[in-house]
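Repro:
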Amino acid sequence: MSHDLTGYYRYVSQDNMDNYLKALDINIALRKLACLMHPDKEVIQSGSHMTIKTISTFHTHTMKFDLDVEFEEDLKGVDGRKCRTTVKWEGDILVCVQKGEKNNRGWRHWLEGDLLHLEMTAEDVVCRQMFKKVK
């Protein structure tokens, strides 16, 4: 097993969120709200099973999965789509590929010290978020 990302992380910063949400066809009202949110992240890793929670005042999105096993992901709380998702380690980076209506969709998580980095992609747009480990 590569890294263990288990921990609770507080929001530090984000870059290019509005353009990322546009690429997902999110309406302007929801985009503005999402850009104002400063979510926390909780990662629980137990062997090859992981739970990643994105926690905000308005919504908590929980993603549960087994590494290297494709599953149907319901993104109802994000953009209303379903996709075929696979998450795996590529070196020290946790990589998620989401196959569906949008090309080049997915995300990557990695640690640098106590900072958790998240890079989300959809079509040709990249959004970056950073979180600091607090527990």
